[in-house]
Amino acid sequence: MALDEAASYGTLGELEHRLRRHAEPEPVCPVVLHLIWTGALTADLHRGPLSVSTPLAVGTPRSVWCWSG
Question: Would you say which domain of life the source belongs to (predicted)?
Fold first, then answer.
């Protein structure tokens, strides 16, 4: 659902606001950050650090692995 909503909203803040209508507020941010981490969403960081005004776009997901050493 989060990825479907992301296609309709331009910024991180707009997406988080929309998702909070469907879910508890606490898991919204980690879900959106996970989508950015995996590449399902891309965040334009040329304007500065990640914030509610950061432009988002639907990206191409990539596999994510964790190193445990």
Answer: Bacteria
How buried is residue 6: exposed, middle or buried, by Cβ count under 10 Å (0-12/13-18/19+)? buried
Alpha-carbon torsion 39, 40, 41, 42, what sign?
positive
Is the pTM higher than 0.85? The answer reads no
Digitized pLDDT (tens) for each residue of the chain, 69 residues in all: 666 777 676 788 888 888 888 777 667 778 888 888 888 888 888 888 888 888 888 876 655 555 555
**Cα–Cα distance between 51 and 23 in angstroms, integer?**
20
User: How distant is the alpha carbon of residue 28 from its chain centre?
Assistant: 9
Q: Residues in the chain, how many? A: 69
